[in-house]
């Protein structure tokens, strides 16, 4: 589980993400000089980000070398464009690595045994939930999506134990979704959460949580429009896995 970074550690992590392609070739001392931080700050930052240390982090980057974007084939790549591409690559790869196949299996079994799938989502997460709804319906599973705050709160009080609720929420703190999750918890309704925040209120309330990796980099810093790419990756894996299971079980 990742921990909150201090101001200095956050500065270092920003420096690393901006210069990610150079990091595998740097020693901890050289990085300390370039970023103007202490080596102990580097170690603390790595540990908070889930790595044993700086060397462990570099090994992680090098392990991805065979699957990373090859920029050498492009004569000129703007550094910001390169950063954008690598941000998306990192979100996809780390999200896949974070997924627990056991949780996916449990989620599929819950979905299979449910009479209805109820999707709750807000804002940009609604687009992912809408795609999920259509795919569930194409797979022959009854599914409905609710995005209106008042309907979400009301609907969550009218569910029964044969239903499964899937929450799609990037930060896991949307007020109406939290209220709905509490209602489901009290009524012992099965809940599955797709999120990028393992420390959220929704993660505490959900029965099963599928958690992705969200990059700190945002190219729209003045607006709350962070990428839902990790949520999309999780939703696709879950739906593909469910479709495969349904296909296998058909006579």
TrEMBL record:
Q: Which residues form the HTH rpiR-type domain?
A: 1-68
Transmembrane helix: present as a keyword of the record? no
Q: Which residues form the SIS domain?
A: 107-249
**Keyword annotations:** DNA-binding, Transcription, Transcription regulation
Where does the source fall among the domains of life?
Bacteria
Name of the protein this chain belongs to: MurR/RpiR family transcriptional regulator
Mention any Pfam family matching this sequence: HTH_6
């Amino acid at each position: 589980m990742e921990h909150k970074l201090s101001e200095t550690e956050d500065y270092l992590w920003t420096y690393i993400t901006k210069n990610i392609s150079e990091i595998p070739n740097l020693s901890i001392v050289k990085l300390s000089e370039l970023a103007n931080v202490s080596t102990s700050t580097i170690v603390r930052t790595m540990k908070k980000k889930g790595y044993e240390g700086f060397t462990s982090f570099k090994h992680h980057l090098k392990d991805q070398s065979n699957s990373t974007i090859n920029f050498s084939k492009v004569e000129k790549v703007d550094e910001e464009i390169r950063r954008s591409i690598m941000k998306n690559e990192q979100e996809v790869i780390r999200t896949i690595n974070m997924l627990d196949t056991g949780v996916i299996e449990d989620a599929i079994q819950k979905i299979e045994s449910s009479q209805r799938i109820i999707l709750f989502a807000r804002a940009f997460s609604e687009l992912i939930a809408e795609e999920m709804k259509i795919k569930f319906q194409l797979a022959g599973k009854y599914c409905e999506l609710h995005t209106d705050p008042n309907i979400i709160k009301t609907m969550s009080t009218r569910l029964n134990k044969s239903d499964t609720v899937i929450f799609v929420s990037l930060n896991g703190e949307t007020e109406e979704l939290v209220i709905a999750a509490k209602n489901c918890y009290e009524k012992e309704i099965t809940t599955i959460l797709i999120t990028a925040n393992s420390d959220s209120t929704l993660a505490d309330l959900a029965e099963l949580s599928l958690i992705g990796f969200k990059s700190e980099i945002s190219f729209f810093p003045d607006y709350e429009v962070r990428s839902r790419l990790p949520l999309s990756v999780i939703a696709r894996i879950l739906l593909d896995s469910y479709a495969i299971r349904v296909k296998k079980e058909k006579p």
